[in-house]
Design a protein that fits this description.
This protein is an alpha/beta fold and 291 residues long. The protein has two domains: 73 residues, no CATH class; 191 residues, Rossmann fold. The protein contains twelve helices and nine strands. It has a seven-stranded mixed β-sheet with strand order 5-4-3-6-7-9-8, sandwiched between helices. It has a two-stranded antiparallel ribbon with strand order 1-2. The two termini are 34 Å apart.
Length: 291
């Protein structure tokens, strides 16, 4: 591996919080003990890898796949079983997409770079900024100074569903507060990786308001991570025509959320898009725009 590849792999490791993954497992254990009314064993906290190796490995594998790992089954003080959702207390990675979807981003960028596919890079739905930080890091590693990374997000969480296609999928800040990450926090994350500069631009607001008027000429990579039908369709309607021939469309939630999948399928059918959808992992997909 050359220096560029080593840097990019190190960046992925950091975005996934893999060097400090054990600390997240420690918090799972501590909160689990507190909820069940049992004392916290400080030896377990100190030596989590040896004392709870199955826990550590479960979280490690889930992190690779971008799967849920923060639910913990415990018995409360009266002995009744319950499930704790500890996501809002234990998830410290800068991305939730997992290793395979991060690899997909860099694989697409390898082709964009070697084949000189024109255009900028964008993610619609950035959360803590991890995927776009990786995009900017890739441009820096390969000294690609003529492209911009666009970070599009409300920075207030997901909208409350307003379309019938999204009924039952309320991921708004009142329901899942961890999804509401401020613009300032995302900018600080870029800064911590020394990647906040004039090649990064932020589009703050709901997609229906920001994407149609965004000053974007061409896109080499369009990455959609809006979960909902409405958010996905807003991204496709505003930006698909700007994807260059040879560029890539990546959809994070295609396999996980039916509203997102339905939006993609409807848009492709409406516009006669026949390029094959390729699977990344259990939820992520992409296709290459040929014309």
């Amino acid at each position: 591996m050359n220096a560029q590849h080593r840097y990019i792999e190190l960046l992925k490791n950091s975005l996934l919080n893999e060097p400090y993954l054990e600390n997240e497992v420690r918090l799972l254990y501590i909160f689990g003990m507190m909820a069940s009314g049992r004392p916290v064993d400080t030896d377990v906290v100190r030596d989590i890898n040896r004392r709870l190796p199955d826990w550590v490995e479960t979280v490690r594998l889930a992190r690779q796949e971008g799967r849920i790992w923060w639910n913990l089954n415990v018995n409360d003080a009266t002995g009744n079983p319950k499930t704790l959702n500890l996501r809002n207390f234990c998830e410290f990675s800068h991305t939730m997409v997992g290793r395979k979807r991060l690899d997909n981003i860099t694989n697409c960028l390898d082709i964009v770079r070697t084949e000189n596919v024109p255009g900028d890079l964008i993610e619609t739905g950035a959360w803590r900024g991890g995927a776009t930080i990786l995009m900017r890091g890739y441009l820096s590693a390969w000294e690609m100074n003529d492209r911009t990374v666009w970070v599009a997000d409300s920075f207030e969480g997901l909208p409350v569903p307003s379309l019938p296609q999204d009924k039952g999928y309320d991921f708004s800040a009142t329901k899942i507060p961890i999804l509401s990450i401020s613009l300032e926090e995302v900018q600080e994350n870029f800064r911590r990786y020394s990647l906040l500069d004039d090649q990064v631009r932020f589009l703050k607001g709901w997609f229906c308001d920001t994407l149609p008027k965004a000053p974007i000429g061409q896109l080499a990579v369009l990455r959609l991570d809006g979960d909902l039908y409405e958010s996905t369709m807003d991204g496709l309607n505003a930006l698909y025509s700007k994807v260059s021939p040879g560029g890539f469309v990546i959809v994070d939630d295609y396999g996980d959320f039916a509203p997102c999948r339905n939006a993609v399928n409807e848009f492709r059918q409406l516009h006669g898009i026949n390029e094959p959808i390729e699977k990344i992992d259990w939820t992520g997909v992409f296709w290459r725009k040929l014309s």
